[in-house]
Design goal:
single chain, alpha/beta, Elongation Factor Tu (Ef-tu), domain 3, 29% helix
Length: 283
């Protein structure tokens, strides 16, 4: 069992949990994730490690409640425990001194890009960060990202805070600035956002890395559920990724695979609400 030490609400249906997991905390590197199971009857689902403290033996997970398992996880408080946390899994993000890097996060993807930005800055890179959300109340980890970068852009779709627009808007401004060379772009967020970033950087030939989030079960490459197409080849996100060359990813196929079990997920969510008297609407 893995005990929850802290529980915090970062925004509407966005939660932060700090778990006691010393073995994972000692080994975790930026870009890696864990697979979590709440109880014996629960599903296995992946969540990126947003932060870790090897000395304290803790890992931090940030997630949005979007379905049965994440809503159930969000009901747990400090002192509660989950049955399984397996990890760290996946290949760590490649961290070296590239020069000027742009780190982009959308929605809860900000929690995933944060440790990457921190590591890149510590490696001696000039880090420009761009984070975005639909509205001001959904912006997370702004101060943490400000400390992890040399310059931070905050965007909101509705203009309620920061730059009014999408994360690709300031990206294009930077790319069009002939006085500012960009050596690499890292992007984590919703699939449409990552796809848009890939298309924005493609004409410039800038290496662009995205972290993919396909359906995942065992996290060891055995089940094949997390397969994605990259460069015309089948890859398994859990062992070959989750980071991939954005310009080689088949985003059309990825988006189709993400909706394969949409009806079953909706049914599971509705049944869980009925069983637990939940009236919260699915976001």
């Amino acid at each position: 069992m893995f005990k929850i030490l802290k529980h915090a609400i970062l925004g509407p249906q966005v939660k932060q949990l700090v778990f006691e997991a010393p073995a994972v905390a000692r080994k975790r590197k930026p870009g890696q994730f864990v697979i979590l199971r709440i109880n014996e009857s629960g599903e296995r689902f992946p969540l990126t490690i947003a932060d870790a403290d090897p000395k304290a033996g803790t890992i931090t997970i940030i997630f949005q409640e979007v379905g049965k398992s994440t809503f159930q996880l969000g009901t747990l408080k400090a002192g509660d425990a989950v049955l399984d946390i397996v990890g760290p899994l996946g290949k760590p993000t490649e961290i070296e001194k590239f020069g000027h890097v742009i780190c982009m996060g959308g929605g809860v993807g900000v929690a995933e890009i944060y440790p990457v930005a921190m590591a890149l800055r510590e490696a001696g890179n000039e880090v420009t960060a761009i984070i975005g959300a639909r509205s001001k109340d959904l912006v997370i980890l702004e101060e943490q990202m400000r400390r992890a970068s040399h310059k931070l852009w905050v965007t909101t779709d509705d203009g309620s805070y920061g730059y009014h627009g999408l994360v690709t808007d300031p990206l294009k401004e930077i790319l069009n600035d002939t006085n500012k060379k960009v050596d690499r772009v890292f992007c984590i967020g919703p699939v449409p956002m990552m796809r848009a970033v890939a298309e924005a950087t493609r004409p410039y030939g800038i290496p662009t890395i995205v972290s993919l989030n396909p359906i995942m079960v065992d996290g060891t490459g055995m089940c094949g559920a997390c397969r994605v197409e990259v460069g015309g080849e089948t890859k398994f996100a859990c062992v070959d990724g989750p980071d991939f060359d954005a310009h080689q990813v088949n985003f059309d196929l990825l988006m189709k695979r993400l909706t394969i079990y949409k009806d079953q997920e909706k049914l599971s969510w509705e049944l869980w609400k009925q069983q637990h008297g939940k009236c919260t609407k699915k976001s």
